[in-house]
Amino acid sequence: MQPNFLEKQLQFQRVHQAYQLYDTSLRSMFRNKELSFPPKNLYLRVFKKEQVVEVWASDQVQYTFIKSYSFTAISGKLGPKQREGDLQIPEGFYQLKTFNPISNYHLSFKVNYPNTADRIRNIDEVQIGGDIYIHGSNKTVGCIPLGDKNISELYWMCVAAYSVNSMIPIHIFPCKMNEKNAATLYAQFPDWQPFWKSLEPMYRFFESHKMLGEITGCDSLGNYQLAIPWD
């Protein structure tokens, strides 16, 4: 537990309001799904084409779906972020890095872009950007906006979970990578096929087992390497 972290977060007015508005209902929601609140593990799946953030939680190994939040705006196109100012939402396997309780977009938390794979893949770029957040409001230049109401609930959910376990994965996919969608994606954007194929096993494994595979590293081109039990 990180009680000091919670105490510090609750000193901020918007966070305290989020706690007052959503803590009771979230505890009831998790209890109805036979999960503790805060849960031992929280996981966010983001799908750019569908413009949705899914929230999953687990007290053991397998995850249970909690709810989803729709984007309120989007910028860029399908494909990973390559450089500062390209308006792209990143794609890949990330972690929640920091919380901003006084965000210009109500509340926000930061995605740890760029990671090692991003740096390798974009090694020839002078500036590959940063400051990628999931936040409130309905504007974006490469972040993920969910509106003020939804970010308040999700922010408190993440703050509570972070106080128990500071590792909160955020996986950003171009789309829901079922067989049909993946085939369409590869045909439309063949240049990104090797990179997307390095994301696909994680999607498939989670869909079938509701468990996360292990990210073991990346290759010399910035494609992910995964340890998926049956893939």
Brief sketch in words of this structure:
By secondary structure, the protein is an alpha+beta fold. The protein has helices spanning 3-10, 13-32, 116-121, 148-162, 179-188, 193-209, and strands spanning 41-47, 52-58, 64-70, 92-103, 106-111, 132-135, 144-145, 169-173, 214-218, 224-227.
Structure description:
It is a single chain. The protein is α+β, with helices and mostly antiparallel strands and 231 residues long. The chain has one domain (3-178): L,D-transpeptidase catalytic domain-like (Beta Barrel), CATH 2.40.440. 33% of the residues lie in helices and 26% in strands. The longest helix has 20 residues, at 13-32. It is globular and about 50 Å long.
The largest β sheet comes out as: 8 strands, mixed
Topology as H/E string?
A: HHEEEEEHEEHEHHEE
What is the H level of CATH, i.e. the homologous superfamily?
Answer: L,D-transpeptidase catalytic domain-like
Percentage of residues in strands: 25-35%
Number of E-state strands: 10
**If helices are DSSP runs of H or I spanning 4 or more residues, what is the number of helices?**
6
Radius of gyration: 17 Å
Which term fits the overall shape? Answer: globular
In whole angstroms, how far apart are the ends?
35 Å
- Top-tier CATH class: Mainly Beta
Q: Looking at CATH, which topology would you report?
A: L,D-transpeptidase catalytic domain-like
